[in-house]
Write a structure and sequence with these properties.
With about 250 residues, the chain is mainly α. About 65% of the residues lie in helices and about 5% in strands. It is built from 13 helices and 3 strands, in the order αββααβαααααααααα. Strands 2-1-3 form a 3-stranded mixed beta sheet. A hairpin with a 6-residue loop joins β1 (about 20-25) and β2. It starts with a helix and ends with a helix.
Amino acid sequence: MSKALGQVLWRQCLKHEHTDVEILVGPASASLKLSAHRNVLAARSLVLAAMIRLNDCKEGQRGQVKLEDADPQSFRDFLQLLYTGEMPEGKDLEEILEILVLADRYAADGLGAVIEERLKAVVAWDESVGRVMMTYVRLPEESEYAGVLVGVMGEQLKRLGFKDALQSQIAALRPIDEDRSQLKSTAARGLILTMMAYGVMRDPDGERRKKEMHALLSQLSSTFLSLCELPEPSAKRQKRGEADAFD
């Protein structure tokens, strides 16, 4: 679908004209009603297409989809991206990451380049890269959008350099240390530290490099997740071992 056609169809969605699907986003008491085209959703999102087909078989729900666990504004922005290939201006890091998560959840392929470009404009080697990492470790390994986040983080290491990254790691790790789940003490923290230690992360140019980086982070993610059940003393020894590796 061309961008020009996407823009025309998106304007129809906004005006609720010539559409044949109704999407109710958010809790029932405060949901946002969006209009869309069945054929566009079927072509761009395997998950939404399947939901529409399923609801078509239910009495009184034909042409309607309910997404109670999605944020209304984020889903609207995602839908605009799905139609037009463009993301609304002025979005901050958390909003862009939420759109990325929705693209992964609803299996909307081909949006990675746009999202990556916007992320690179707002991510620096500070708390923002930690938030990117927290999103990365929650995505499926095979996700296109996990690869997007690898490229964003690798770009930061390329710009900053290993020495500077190591000196400023406290800021990058702050969002992870604030997370109270087991994830933060193993996968996310370990991945950021190990990112800085591997030379493959220093040059993210080219598709081959990105695939290597993605494979490396996937392996490391599995490794650190397996440490979640270790008792605290062992975890502390693990951290000391990591620190020694940087010396």
